[in-house]
Amino acid sequence: MVKSATVSLTREEARFRIDSAEVGDYVLDDGYKPYLHPLRTIGGRTLSLAMPSDHRHHKGLMYALTATDVNWWEEVAVDGYVDTPGVQRIEVTEQTGEAEIAQQLIWTDADGRRATFRERRVISCSWQEAGFVRWTWSADFDVLRDTELRQSIWSEEHHGRMVNYHGLGIRFPREFGFDPSAGRWQSDGQLGADAIIGTTSESVTVTDLVDGEVPAPQVSLRITQPGSAHGWFATQSPGFGWLSVGPTVLPERRRMSTGDVFHEEYFVDVADGNPFATER
User: Which of these, 107, 121, 263, 275, could form a disulfide with 103 (CB 3.0-4.6 Å)?
Assistant: First the structure.
């Protein structure tokens, strides 16, 4: 059966639906960055966590970076790291399709004195006949001043190099990871978060169980970076699951000059069960 994707836009959020099922809210009224939460399967099961007590700046499915003098990630000043929190300031949000919105954002500091990027972001949602919701997150950046992107001081060492977690990332529900036999992280023959971290595969799939039903239902999420070879950051432990991919996961520094441009595009697929195990 063909399913219809739609979006309704208010000042606070863009609410996406597949037929009558609410599959995600794109939050617009956050003080630091817009983000997707809750991110749901068509069956209503949530695969994201926002503002948990251990990392208040983790907000569902989000995109952020850090420069040497502005931090769009942690949202607070960090002594000895980057002492200026950044904001992704929304200039315009408009509906551009049945299930699509487009935004103009300025990446700057709270005072607006360090405008660094101008971004056009497009978020859309669709139903795939293989049995999952597909999100497309696309962004085009103009560099407004000479700047240098950097890794976090909390990056992890893996096989002799530091692996960062900035870019497009998702914080999973706390129940992910409590049953090691149920959770499965997979990409291009790599199994487990420890095997995936630091790799540059096209996609990563995470499958686990969620609370609230008996028996506990299985859900899956797959992130794909079409045409890119960014590094992946992956970590899984009871109560803490995180997956991200982006331009500074592997390089320690990335210098950019005024007038430079760069493009980011990702697919995020969300499903009940695991249709990705057999889809090819």
Answer: 121
Model's pTM, two decimal places?
A: 0.96
CATH assignment at residue 229: 2.70.98
**What is the number of domains present in the chain?**
1
Sole residue written with tokens 């990563």: 204
For CA atoms 239, 83, 230, 251, give the dihedral sign. negative
Residue 77 binned pLDDT confidence (cut-offs 50, 70, 90): confident
3-class DSSP state of 277: helix
Sequence-ordered list of residues with C-beta below 8 angstroms from that of 129, at least 6 positions apart, any chain = none
From CA 66, how far away is CA 73, in angstroms rounded? 6
Mean pLDDT, residues 199-203: 96
Q: Report DSSP letters for 97-145, one per residue.
A: ETTEEEEEEEEEETTS----EEEEEEEEEEEETTTEEEEEEEEEEEE-S
Burial category of 226 from C-beta neighbours within 10 Å (exposed 0-12, middle 13-18, buried 19 and up)? exposed
Cα distance between residue 188 and residue 49, in whole Å: 26
The angle subtended at Cα 259 by Cα 256 and Cα 265, nearest 5°, is 70
Paired with 233 in beta bridges are: 244
Strand pairing report for 231-237 and 240-246: antiparallel
Structure tokens given for 159: 């096989």
The 10s digit of each residue's pLDDT in 18-44 is: 999 999 999 999 999 999 999 999 999
Write down the residue that tokens 């939050």 correspond to.
27
Judged by phi (left if over 0) then psi (alpha if -120 to 50, else beta), residue 224 lies in: beta
Place 280 in a pLDDT band, splitting at 50, 70 and 90.
very low
What lies within 8 Å, CB to CB, of 243 at 6+ separation is 169, 170, 172, 185, 193, 204, 206, 221, 223, 232, 233, 234
